[in-house]
Amino acid sequence: MKISVCRKAHFNAAHRLHNPEWDDAKNKAIFGKCNNPNFHGHNYQLEVWLSGKIDEETGYLIDLKILSKLIEEEIENRFDHKNLNLDTEEFKTLNPTAENICIVIWNLLRGKLDASLDLKVRLFETDRNIVEYPAI
Ligand code: NI
Description:
Layout: E1 2-15, H1 24-31, E2 40-53, H2 64-79, E3 82-83, H3 84-87, H4 98-110, E4 118-124, E5 130-133
Parallel strand pairs: 1-3
Antiparallel strand pairs: 1-2, 2-4, 4-5
The protein binds nickel (II) ion (NI).
């Protein structure tokens, strides 16, 4: 009998979408305002979903205090109030699209969670633009 739990979090960060292989005109055509050389910010909302079996002793899937601390240490401390392109190792050469940010977050968390837990990360770049990894 499997169950899922979710912990929500958020972080504010700046980014610029840019492909250095392309000239300015093509970058502007593809990425529009998101290619603004002086960056722009988002209030990213994060959902971290875990699935697995309930622990018989605690009645928990995972102690959400532990998940909350993990998200704080691995994600919020790393990305909150940062310029993703300039301030983080993860996006020095990786375009910080919502898709790429979502996969980076999944990888950061995956290694720190028990292998018995399934992990899904959902990232809201705006209320209407949402990405999920692994894919539905
Ligand atoms: Ni943006």
